[in-house]
């Protein structure tokens, strides 16, 4: 359940946004559609990098839930669901009951240039892209601040420009630009290039005023939409002027109230935080204290309490089952760090514990971090520099610890402590399966526990299992069992999801034998077989080439799998497929803490294509990303949504705990489950297994 509620304490954490002297454009407020804006319209402002907002806005015709994310200082992304109260999901009561229609949308806004003393800030954006286009718009907007007032003026096309209070400038090029197709191609979910900047255009704008009373802001807006083409039906507009206020009772909460169109009351609430804020994490009061420097009393390596050092390294620094080697002026620590998300924290503790234990004749400490017995990185530490940093230096003299990182080198020193061979591990973690936007119920869920067990036969061979225990779900409300009519051309490789989820309260989702090892300096490989995931069993292999300290890597996986029988998941069904991908990984220097991933190959339904995945890691350790898959399956064959896409946020558990842990949970959003563009959910990936822990 932690994966579900993880955002609640983060959203309510004390991130101070207030500027007690004047309005600050660095901390702007959210609009009704989500994203930084006035009321119905956006501004050119951007939230601080890392800002995350959850918005709920409500009026007579529409209810909107949205999340807005600021992955970079120049880019804003908003995901939104709009509940259209006057429309039913469908006309078939046996299919969707009395549920009202829910429209999903994605907005993108990018900053073109920042405000200067004379020039305004200018941004451009797209609203409701890759959806059904009920609210699709394009706009260019500028904002200029004077003291406590922020002025905004922009021009919009589409829904935001429906009033047509100015002529579309592109109509001068061709009359075809004056018309806009309000529909969507295929089954929706695609980017409609042919509609961009077409149809009516309108000016919009307004002001946002920071009152002398700090919690209160006032908004005045001129709306470019006349509401003449709304999916909710007839909406009357008495005036294009909208008035509103934002009241901030706490730093993490904004309350919205506005009077719009001269006849409609809108209210809402925003919960927000910043993933780049280190104060998101609770203080680690239950962690052992960081060791302080104490000159060692050992006269030689033979006098060192090696077992005591090994025990301290495990309990204080998180190095479990570490082996320690030492001769002459060098000591080497080899092990896997399982406690701290930031490897430097574990290194700092290991350095202090070692320098306190070994004699002054030892000049160098080598720390070789490994995962699954595969050496990943070697850190070399000049212990004399550690001793000098922790000694009384003359005033004005500064000293830093001398430390370098390199590819792991062979160890030749005498073994002082032998690592115990791993035997088995067991843990229980919460698990959430969810479906958003379904016909019977907007939100469907299954909450349970995963009991994970690893039994190590040798250092590189082990058996892993995951037993899922269902605790709570509402999938009994799902009554549509027939194959999707918009996807009959594809084999059903994922749309049996509800049958699997509801088949039993106890499911063996994984039981596999894995071999994993490192070959040479840069090559990693694994082979595996068994029940690989909830829906598929089979065998597979993966190879990864990852040069040390390079920003790129290249891997390939191949799998031969059969579908598991949802009526008895220990049995196999008839469907069999060979699937696999070649994957390139890249961490570009010009984008801080971003990992780009492109996978090309064959998917579970036999379709061929590519998956693009981009993830951004913030200073708090939270990661946010999105993915999209395009295959040779047409939009009509794929069905509603046209192609596979989704968003996800990964949250370290220790943000909410008083002790450090490397465990984390992921919340994902995939608008619809379809059979095209579906990958095998492999338990282990070599890229993650070969990554060193860091913020």
How would you characterize the overall build of this protein?
- By secondary structure, the chain is mainly β.
- It has three domains: 38-86 and 101-274, Beta Barrel (Porin), CATH 2.40.160.40; 301-417, Alpha-Beta Plaits (2-Layer Sandwich); 424-689.
- It is 9% helix and 45% strand.
- It has nine helices and 31 strands.
- It has helices at 2-5, 7-11, 93-96, 306-317, 343-357, 383-389, 497-502, 635-638, 686-689, and strands spanning 51-58, 62-72, 75-88, 100-113, 121-129, 137-146, 149-158, 201-210, 216-222, 241-250, 253-260, 264-274, 319-327, 330-337, 364-371, 374-382, 403-406, 415-417, 424-436, 443-458, 461-473, 506-519, 523-531, 536-545, 552-565, 568-586, 594-602, 608-617, 623-631, 644-652, 664-669.
- The strands form three sheets. It has a 13-stranded antiparallel β-sheet with strand order 19-20-21-22-23-24-25-26-27-28-29-30-31. A twelve-stranded antiparallel beta barrel has the order 1-2-3-4-5-6-7-8-9-10-11-12.
- A hairpin with a 3-residue loop joins strand 11 (253-260) and strand 12.
- Helix 4 packs antiparallel against helix 5 (343-357).
- The protein starts with a helix and ends in a 6-residue tail after the last helix.
- The model is unreliable at 1-8, 12-22 and 184-189 (pLDDT under 50).
